[in-house]
């Protein structure tokens, strides 16, 4: 859902702005992190940082976009049954860990049915705070990056992340009986 729309830009505007500087954007997710990346020439660092901050801080989850993405995820879930290695890895995580690493990488059908724009907004508000985010740049002087980012991020919540203070991920010895 990254790079679709923000409260400041619609999708067409985002595509045009990224294209105007010859950039490319990528977002990925894992069990423990979200990663947003922007590649372009160094001279466009101010534009890249401003766009990245807008993507992360001001996403808008339009109903039709959420539904479109949910259809894609459902198709991916259908394909996972043809990937024994992926199924094995998911199963090993669910029985081998507790805490964050035990969470499935792919959402269940039941979880997808409950997913709404409100839940996505709550996730952003609860998890995207100063203690949980990193802004990094390659080939850019630290002071330059700081001077660009500070005005965009000065008001970011510095509240501690509740999960970081409580539950810990731990390896546990699980057992999964194999059927069949």
TrEMBL record:
It holds the Pfam family Peptidase_M16. Residues 118-160 form the Peptidase M16 C-terminal domain. Residues 1-107 form the Peptidase M16 N-terminal domain. GO terms for cellular component: mitochondrion. InterPro entries: Metalloenz_LuxS/M16 (IPR011249), MPP/UQCRC_Complex (IPR050361), Pept_M16_N (IPR011765), Peptidase_M16_C (IPR007863). GO terms for molecular function: metal ion binding. PANTHER family: METALLOPROTEASE, MITOCHONDRIAL-PROCESSING PEPTIDASE SUBUNIT ALPHA. This is Mitochondrial-processing peptidase subunit alpha. It comes from Nepenthes gracilis. The lineage of its organism: Eukaryota, Viridiplantae, Streptophyta, Embryophyta, Tracheophyta.
